[in-house]
Design a protein that fits this description.
57% helix, single chain, 2 strands, mainly alpha
């Protein structure tokens, strides 16, 4: 079961709704290929987002470090 649903709008666009689930049996072969590709893309986007969030948290912790502040004042960084 996919943890998202691709919704086709009347103007030809597609919307990904992560609140709905899509069972495998409800998909045709062509739709299954599309859902598998989208699942991979969403997984990659989630990894990139987690990595960016972790990097921002790391930078925040470093910036609050008193030794780092002292190094900045002395011109070492």
């Amino acid at each position: 079961m996919f943890n998202f649903r691709i919704i086709d709008t009347p103007d030809g666009n597609q919307i990904i709704d992560r609140n709905l689930k899509t069972p495998y049996k409800a998909l045709t072969t062509l739709q299954m290929v599309e859902y598998l590709e989208m699942d991979n893309r969403l997984a990659y986007m989630d990894r990139v987002e987690r990595k960016a969030r972790a990097e921002a948290e790391r930078r925040r912790k470093i910036a609050r470090n008193p030794i780092y502040k002292m190094a900045c004042l002395c011109g070492l960084v």
